[in-house]
Amino acid sequence: MHMSSTIKVKVKDKVKKEASEIFKELGMDMHTAVNIYLKQVIRDKGIPFVLSTEACEDIALKAIKAAGKEKKKKKAKKETAAIEKVLEELSE
């Protein structure tokens, strides 16, 4: 026999209304959506989305900049190695 629990959550009316409309479009109610969320938390052993104090655009921009810096470092290492090889050949 399955036991069930009740969870009471206070949310703004507008949030509840907008979320309910989206759930309705997806063919589910609030109860089903919350259960899906909780099962996903259990499966992931954490929140099933990224939590951040930064906007997604800021995170993406930082990732792009970091990738660019890494690419420049690799290019600089290759160029340095090529120069060192030429210098070594010249000194022979």
Annotation keywords:
2 domains; mainly alpha; 92 residues
Structural write-up:
- The chain has helices at residues 13-25, 30-44, 56-91.
- The protein has 92 residues and is mainly α.
Could you provide a short overview of the structure?
By secondary structure, the chain is mostly helical. 70% of the residues lie in helices and 0% in strands.
Write the layout of secondary structure elements.
Elements: H1 13-25, H2 30-44, H3 56-91
| Classification by helices and strands | mainly alpha
Q: Compute the CA-based radius of gyration.
A: 27 Å
Helix and strand sequence: HHH
Number of domains: 2
Give the terminus-to-terminus CA distance. Answer: 85 Å
Amount of helix: 55-70%
Overall average pLDDT: 84
Could you give the count of β-strands?
0
Give a short account of the largest sheet: none
Strand content: under 5%
Molecular shape: elongated
How many H/I helical runs? 3
